[in-house]
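ARCHIVE CARD
Drawer: 12
Card no.: 0347
Subject: one protein chain, sequence and derived structure
Cross-reference: see card 0346
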Amino acid sequence: MKTQVLLLLLVLTAFSVNAQRGVRIGYVDMDYILENVEEYQMANQQLGEKVQRWKAEVEEQEATIKKMRADLNAEKVLLTKELIQEREDEIDELEAKMKEYRQDRFGPNGDLIMQRSQLVKPIQDQVFNAVQEIAANKKYDFVFDKSADVVMLYSDKRYDISEQVLRSINATRKRTDRATAAEQPKEVDPELKERQEAYQQRKEERQEEIEARRAAKLKEIEARKKAYEERRKKMLEEREARRKAKLEEREKLKDENTNTNTTENEEGE
């Protein structure tokens, strides 16, 4: 980061020394622009709802695994070493699946990063085109992004061209909308239309495949949890049945001993 700032200062100094006029510098605040683009806000809200659902899924799995470990620790005195190891292996495998699912959603190459990148890119392209036009018209030598990695220790508001960029984006959108509305329906090249439809279909199918894999992984986790709990429940029921059987056996022996003692006392009399 410091190296970037130093290089930037050196470039600006060299340019300023050799230039016959003052250096014109502007900057844009990408965060501010994104906040004021309606399409981005709507799509970002939809993504936020997805993220909340993904977080809830992960938190639920983590809580379940935590409870499973707590139950196992409480029941260890009742289990053989083999059963303890078997259940620990099952929990470890389930936890590995859960971590894998969490990476799929929130990892460096996960759904959140990919979808956020897809969400921002069209706006970034519009900003880039608007900046090119404004910089050429107003003869800016440098235009920086305030929200990017280049650290701006101070920035005078008069050099902020974010509003100009927003106006340019809105004007371009309106011109496009008017042109689209004014155009008469034209015959589309069937081959081109077919390729476009095929591309869109492949894109949708890939997304569906990704979501299907995520859903299958979540379903597998749920199935493993259910199977684990069923085995645990069966084990506890069997243990309880054995305990009751032993109690009944003790009561039976106690009754037999009582009857035997009573009989002996009567015979002695």
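Annotation on reverse: The chain has one domain: 2-179+206-259. Residues 2-179+206-259 form one domain.
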